[in-house]
Structures are given as structure tokens and as C-alpha cells.
């Protein structure tokens, strides 16, 4: 469990209301519910049944009801969940009622793509600054923001508390970048570099590695073909039931919290 510094320290400017202590797996599914609820709201739905929402979010409905019960949300029998109310509840629990600042460190191929990712803004995050150390890149404008030298991080963080630092540097530089983010008061790191970061207690690191996801899919394909052979994919050991088995795609792995 993470410890959090008192409000008012860098990265934690606002008062933090008491929150339910949710299972990590529930937390990982809440953004899926939120995405599905936003789509339902856009399509004009005012209420949704647990079954409909479960299908839209790609989870089973019993799990969904259990997850939402942790938020004190049980829906109304015969009516379902109020879409707007549930969006508000989930956004509140995820801390998305305030726009959070994100900085990107490492503006190479991946960093460029991330800097232009519209999903940050639409999901409650604002890219506040871009950092690199390459003199060729520093000073360039990318998607409307000027790339700054990483040495400017403390100054930027002092002016505009940073919620999350995204690391998209090569693995060799990632630990040093993480150390500098932590020193600047950042308590949430999203790490794309293929390495394990060491951070102090109270700092949450999520790791995203697409190669690991591919390797996991490879394992499932290998397992299916070795268990069922070319003839069919039913009745596999371990609960795999055939084509279309939906595995959690929790690409981000909690580390160091
Ligand atoms: N997680 C994933 O799914 C995934 C996918 C693709 C790439 N990656 C990883 O993302 C990272 C970036 O990949 P890329 O293809 O964009 O690399 P790249 O070489 O194009 O870009 C890396 C950038 O980081 C900068 N940099 C290096 N050291 C730095 C430091 N100490 N501080 C600040 N900036 C620094 C470089 O100047 C460069 O601009 C790599 O670690 C790569 O393995 C991860």
C-alpha cells in the first residue's frame, strides 16, 4: 500500500477525501467501466443494466456488480445503474475530478507518439511539459509544446505540480530519470522503458511493455495448440474454453508501491 505525503506537497496540491480501500484488480477495471459508460452516455443511454455494462466493458457481470458494490453503487432493481451518477462516482474514486498534469521524459519515437495522444486530454490528463536531454530535440516544438532540457524539471514541478511522469527513454537512462522525477516530488510514474525501477515507498510505478503482452499471448497460443492439437480448441485444461477467451490485458504492472 502506498503512503502518500500530506496535501500541499509537490504533486499533491488538493485535499484528499477518504476513499474506499479497493482491491487492485477492481481499480484496474474501473477505467474500463468508465470508458464504456462514456460511450453509453454519448449514445444517449441514461441507465444501464449490469449485464449491458459488463458486455460493454468486457468483464463478467458478477465481477462488475462486486466491483461497483465496493463504491457503494448497487443500481436499482429493474432499472440498472444511472449512467451519469456512476460516471461521477468512478471519476471521483479515480481522482479524475481534477485535471492532472503529466510530463513526458524522452521524446524519441515513442515519446513523440505519446505527446500527440489525444486520449490523455479526453481522460482527464494534461500534458504539462516535455523533457529530453538531446540538444537536437531541446527547443523543438512537438504537438504545441516546447521540449525542455531535463535539468529544468525541478523548476517546472515547482511552478506546476506534476501528477505523473511518463518515462520513454532507453532503459539505461530510466532509473536516473525516475530519481529526478521523485526528487521533483512526482509520486506516480508510468514506465515504458524495459527495466525495473527502484523507487522509495510512497511512489507508484506502473510499467507498460507491449513485448511482454505479446509474449503472454504467445504463451496462450502455444498452450492451446499443444493441449488441443490442430483439431479443436475446446475443453482445455485450466479453464480455457476455446477461441475468443478474453484474458485481462492489464498491460501496466504495479511495481514498487
Ligand atoms: N513499453 C512499450 O510497449 C514500448 C514500446 C516501444 C518502445 N518502448 C521503449 O520506450 C523507450 C523509448 O523508445 P524509442 O523508440 O522512443 O527510443 P528513441 O531512441 O527514439 O528515444 C529515446 C529518447 O530518450 C531520450 N533520452 C535518453 N536518455 C535520456 C535521459 N536521461 N533523460 C531524458 N531523455 C533521455 C533520447 O534523447 C531520445 O530522444 C525505450 O526504452 C523502448 O525500449 C517501449
Q: Tell me the strand percentage band.
A: 15-25%
How much helix is in the residues? Answer: 25-40%
Tell me about the biggest sheet? 8 strands, mixed
CATH class of the largest domain: Alpha Beta
Termini gap: 6 Å
Low-pLDDT regions = 1-16, 238-243, 249-257
Estimated structural class: alpha/beta
Radius of gyration: 21 Å
Number of helices: 9
What would you call the quaternary organization?
A: single chain
Which fold does the CATH topology of the largest domain refer to? Answer: Rossmann fold
Strand order of the largest sheet: 5-6-4-3-7-8-9-10
Order of SSEs: HEHHEHEHHEEEHEHEEHE
Structural domain tally: 2
Mean pLDDT: 85
The CATH architecture of the largest domain can be given as 3-Layer(aba) Sandwich
The number of E-state strands comes to 10
Bound molecules: nicotinamide-adenine-dinucleotide
CATH H level, superfamily name of the largest domain: NAD(P)-binding Rossmann-like Domain
Compact summary:
The chain has about 260 residues and is α/β, with parallel strands linked by helices. The chain contains 9 helices and 10 strands. About 40% of the residues lie in helices and about 15% in strands.
Secondary-structure blueprint:
Layout: H1 24-42, E1 47-48, H2 50-57, H3 61-70, E2 81-82, H4 83-93, E3 100-105, H5 109-115, H6 119-122, E4 125-132, E5 141-142, E6 145-149, H7 153-159, E7 164-167, H8 171-183, E8 188-191, E9 204-208, H9 210-228, E10 252-255
Parallel strand pairs: 3-4, 3-7, 4-6, 7-8, 8-9
Antiparallel strand pairs: 1-2, 5-6, 9-10
This protein binds nicotinamide-adenine-dinucleotide.
The site of nicotinamide-adenine-dinucleotide (NAD) has 26 residues, from α5, β4 and α8.
Subcellular location: Cytoplasm
Region (Disordered): 227-257
Family: Belongs to the transcriptional regulatory Rex family.
Amino acid at each position: 500500500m502506498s503512503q502518500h505525503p500530506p496535501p500541499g506537497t509537490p504533486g499533491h496540491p488538493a485535499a484528499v477525501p477518504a476513499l474506499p480501500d479497493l482491491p487492485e484488480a477492481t481499480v484496474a477495471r474501473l477505467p474500463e467501466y468508465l470508458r464504456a459508460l462514456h460511450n453509453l452516455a454519448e449514445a444517449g443511454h441514461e441507465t444501464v443494466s449490469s449485464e449491458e455494462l459488463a458486455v460493454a466493458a468486457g468483464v463478467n457481470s458478477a465481477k462488475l456488480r462486486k466491483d461497483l458494490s465496493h463504491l457503494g453503487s448497487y443500481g436499482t432493481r429493474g432499472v440498472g445503474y444511472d449512467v451519469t451518477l456512476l460516471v461521477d462516482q468512478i471519476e471521483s474514486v479515480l481522482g479524475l475530478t481534477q485535471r492532472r498534469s503529466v510530463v513526458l521524459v524522452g521524446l524519441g519515437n515513442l515519446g513523440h507518439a505519446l505527446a500527440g495522444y489525444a486520449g490523455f486530454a479526453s481522460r482527464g490528463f494534461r500534458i504539462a511539459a516535455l523533457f529530453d536531454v538531446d540538444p537536437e530535440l531541446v527547443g523543438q516544438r512537438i504537438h504545441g509544446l516546447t521540449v525542455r532540457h531535463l535539468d529544468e524539471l525541478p523548476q517546472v514541478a515547482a511552478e506546476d505540480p506534476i501528477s505523473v511522469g511518463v518515462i520513454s527513454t532507453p532503459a539505461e537512462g530510466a532509473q536516473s530519470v525516475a530519481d529526478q522525477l521523485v526528487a521533483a516530488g512526482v509520486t506516480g510514474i508510468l514506465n515504458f522503458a524495459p527495466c525495473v525501477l527502484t523507487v522509495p515507498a510512497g511512489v507508484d510505478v506502473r510499467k507498460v511493455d507491449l513485448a511482454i503482452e505479446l509474449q503472454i499471448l504467445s504463451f496462450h497460443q502455444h498452450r492451446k495448440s499443444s493441449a488441443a492439437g490442430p483439431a479443436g480448441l475446446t475443453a482445455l485444461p485450466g479453464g480455457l474454453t476455446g477461441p475468443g477467451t478474453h484474458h485481462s490485458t492489464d498491460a501496466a504492472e504495479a511495481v514498487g508501491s
